[in-house]
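Subject line: Sequence and fold of a protein, written as structure tokens
Enclosed: The protein record, placed directly beneath this head.
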Amino acid sequence: MKITINEVAKLAGVSKATVSRVMNNSKPVNPEKYERVLRAIEELEFKPNPVAQGLVHKRTGLIGVVIPDITNPFFAELVKGIEEVVREKNYNMILCNTTHNGNKELDYLNMLKEKYVDGVIFMTAKVSHEHKEFFRKSKLPVTFINRKYEDINVASLDIDNYQAAYDMTTFFLKRGHRRVAIIRAPLTDKTSGYERYRGYQDAMEFYDIKPDDALVMRSNFKIESAYNAVKKFLKEQKPVTVIFATSDLMAIGAIRCLRDHNIHVPNQVEVAGFDDIPMASYYSPSITTVRQPIFEMGKKATRLLIKEIKGEPINSRNIIFPYQIILRESTLKTPVTGE
């Protein structure tokens, strides 16, 4: 049976108001009554409702985390980083998985507001007018991860997705490759989609390679989608020596499809990914990729949000993390000849 404030008051021989004053430290209480209340709370193992307490203190100790796909290891790793700081700082987390559904995102945001969360860590592919209106009206502290939106005054953390994709593409072009295909994400995703694709395009143009839509495959971050994109690509017999997938899951889908079509990776076609999810180093062949400090980004975002919740000064509201190109077995390291 759940213990209520009534039982505590009865055992301590005081009013409910006195118990409330002790718990919330809102008004002075007679020392003898104060001790009786504390003993009653301990004896009954009374645990007050954090939301109810939050209504008094204007804080609940709750942080909402909204992510698009919990099955994607990238977001799972981010949540691990968030959770570590949440526990360290004695907060609690409400995790919301939206499956890339904008309406579901808004439903979750309204639910979190009703739960009186202290702040929100938000990850979405696209910020709509409705999202902006929600954050403007609710005035909830919010931090974006892996996304940045100049027209919304919120904190954000990311890497330079454009430059990372440019550098990865250049890695292949410098070694003599000219038929470099890309598996891109939807362009409505400003960072993982648009910025990475733009980096690829600009690198190709720098090497005087004209834009060729035949080298572009479209996917949605999932293994199966990338597999099918490569399967269609091979069926149309488009010769390539490199496939640059703008996420590691899509790189895995590409490698699996090439293997099923008896195309050796990396001797016949080299493959690269993006993100460096934990699976990338254990897959066979291990995947050359752009490493984002995913776990650290989750931790930093949470610390930044808690600072904002507490009204503490923040040095920078837009943090750009460093990235690395990690070379593994899915690419060769020697120059390409005869192309």
Observations:
- The domain at 5-48 is CATH 1.10.260.40 (434 Repressor (Amino-terminal Domain)).
- The chain is about 45% helix and 15% strand.
- The mean pLDDT is 90.
- The radius of gyration is 26 Å.
